[in-house]
Amino acid sequence: MTLPKQFRFSQASLQDFQDCRRRFQLRYLEKLSWPAVETEPALEHEEQMKLGAQFHRLVHQHQLGIDAGLLQASIRNADLLRWWENYLDNPIPGLPSQRLPEHVLSVPLGEYRLIAKLDLIAYQPGERLVVVDWKTSRKAPGRQQLSDRLQTLVYRYVAVEAGAHINGGQPFEPEQVSFVYWFANEPDSPIIFDYSAQEHAAAREKLLHQASTIAALEVADFFLTENEQHCRFCGYRSLCGRGVTAGDLSELEFPEADSLEDFDLDLEQVGEIAF
């Protein structure tokens, strides 16, 4: 099976491939919708997702300069209000003053492209760039869990590769880039990942290898994962014969719908570097 030339990888699609090749095939190549509930209780999960999206919109508007008091007056949910107050009362220390909220960057990845929608880019031209990801999960994952996620690798990689787009044509060095996970329920405990030239070289090798591997696969090569833990919160589990019961919401580690495919993107607004 050959990927379409216009195929765009994202941290979400690469994570899905790493977790389960079959899930990648069903979701991104066959674009199959499967009406299975991923998480129980379903209504509670849906509400949590909606609140997370509302929180991201509030922060986006605030980072664009809209008055915090005006935004707060629109909040009607107690959890959302608590997250908002945590956000206002616990700013990330030393965050550069120039801000690009909800910014999309795209860079070449072999014959394809790698695209990332970043909650916030804070930067000082020529000096440093910080990517921030707002999380509304009930409990913050451990540092090692986050380190293993493709999001942590992809966001720093893309920030370096496309950084010249916002830095007057000059790229940021890997050592000038960092990535912060900020948790609305644990606002005083952000998890920060710095970067280095060695990590960037390793990231490039891994991402190129993964993209070329996927592009070379035949239909039969998209097999099911052997780790059935990945099936607990997968909407395709009943299709694949991996059970019909949805996973417990209290055990869900990464509840945010941060897949790029969840957003409608205007390609005219995508910042990118040239081939």
Annotation field: number of helices: 8
* Low-confidence regions: 247-251, 256-275
* Helix content percent band: 25-40%
Give the SSE order as H and E letters. EHHEHHHEEEHHEEHEE
**Percent of residues in beta strands?**
15-25%
Largest sheet descriptor: 7 strands, mixed
Secondary structure category: alpha/beta
Overall strand count: 9
First-last Cα distance: 25 Å
Task: Please give the oligomerization state of what you see.
Answer: single chain
Commentary on this structure:
The protein has 275 residues and is α/β, with parallel strands linked by helices. Helix content is 35%, strand content 20%. The protein has eight helices and nine strands. Strands 1, 3, 4, 5, 6, 7 and 9 form a seven-stranded mixed sheet that branches. The chain is globular, with a radius of gyration of 19 Å.
Essential attributes:
disordered C terminus; single chain; 9 strands; 275 residues; alpha/beta; 7-stranded mixed beta sheet; two-stranded parallel ribbon
Could you give a short description of this structure?
The protein is 35% helix and 20% strand. By secondary structure, the chain is an alpha/beta fold.
